[in-house]
Structure formats: C-alpha cells, structure tokens
Recover the amino acids of this structure.
C-alpha cells in the first residue's frame, strides 16, 4: 500500500514562512539578550578557508551579506574569524608594511583573529542578560562581534554570535561610534 502524497497547486497570494525571530523587529535595552543573538543552531554560519586571499573573503562577505566569516583550515578545524573591518581597515596595510609583498598576496590567515585572541560570553550568562547588558559589553570591549559559548556534555562550542550592527538595527540607534576614531588613532600611532 502506497502512502504517496498528493501535490496541489500553489494558491495565489501565498507567502513565505519567516523565522520566529524577526531580525528587523525593534527591541529595547530591557529585552532579553537572546533576542539579538544569532543562534548557530538555527542559522548556519559562513566560513572560509584560512588559505583564501582577503579579496575572496571580502567577495564572500558581500555575496552573503555578512561582515564576519569563521575561518577553518584544510582539516576543517576552526581557527578564528575574519571581519570586514580586518579586511578593509588598517590590518592589510600594516601587514604589507611589516612583511612585504602586495595586497593581493595577503591571505585570511595573515590578518584573521585567531581563536586564542577571541573573547566570548557563556550562553548561560546571555540567557540571564538584557540587550542593555550586551550594549555595555560591546562598548567596553570595543568589538563589533561577540561570540557566545555553550558547554554540553564536556564539549564547548560556539553557540551564537552577537553583532553590533544587528543590535543597532534592532534597537533603532547607533552604538559604539568611537571605534572608527580609535582605529585611525591607532593607525596614525603605528605610522609615526
């Protein structure tokens, strides 16, 4: 006996089901921090190989509409992350200045932020925090992204990511405006 399903015509005016969390939905600083976290159980993160050049990384970010890529090696082990700020900021210029070569020679591995230099917040803390707590944390650490770690059965994984751009969009206000100015101040100091 066959349990074949009978297809039907798609009705006019049909819409798409959206994720239960609307990323464009406004939040307040009192809202739960989970409302601004990208949950990697739901959203698959974009990745790039550490040997790719930074132009490839920039093109992938533009194509995917993201500002951060997780970096893996040829054995598919997570090595770190690279952001649009890394690619478009002072890092490439400083790398060429210190190591020679050209901009086209720079790989993701050359300017990414390795795992051992990243900070993260435990998922359990995010579950208890508010969006205001997240804003304060982002302002204090002067980062555009914050990773969220979760430990289960003696295994720690990156469970989520919080983006300053996403938080700003959902709050309806700009946050952490001093980062660019400090970046240029650091650049001027490095060039002096």
């Amino acid at each position: 006996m066959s349990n074949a399903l009978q297809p039907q015509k798609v009705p006019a005016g049909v819409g798409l089901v959206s994720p239960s969390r609307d990323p464009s939905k406004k939040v307040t600083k009192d809202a739960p921090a989970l409302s601004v976290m990208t949950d990697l159980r739901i959203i698959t993160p974009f990745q790039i190989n550490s040997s790719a050049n930074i132009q490839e990384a920039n093109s992938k970010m533009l194509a995917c509409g993201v500002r951060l890529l997780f970096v893996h090696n040829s054995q598919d082990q997570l090595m770190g992350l690279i952001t649009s700020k890394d690619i478009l900021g002072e890092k490439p210029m400083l790398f060429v200045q210190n190591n020679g070569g050209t901009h086209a020679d720079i790989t993701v591995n050359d300017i990414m932020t390795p795992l051992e230099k990243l900070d993260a917040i435990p998922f359990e803390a995010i579950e208890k925090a508010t969006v205001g707590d997240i804003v304060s944390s982002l302002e204090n650490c002067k980062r555009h992204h914050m990773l969220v770690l979760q430990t289960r059965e003696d295994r720690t994984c990156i469970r989520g990511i919080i983006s300053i751009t996403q938080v700003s969009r959902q709050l309806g206000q700009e946050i952490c405006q001093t980062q660019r100015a400090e970046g240029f101040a650091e650049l001027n100091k490095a060039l002096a």
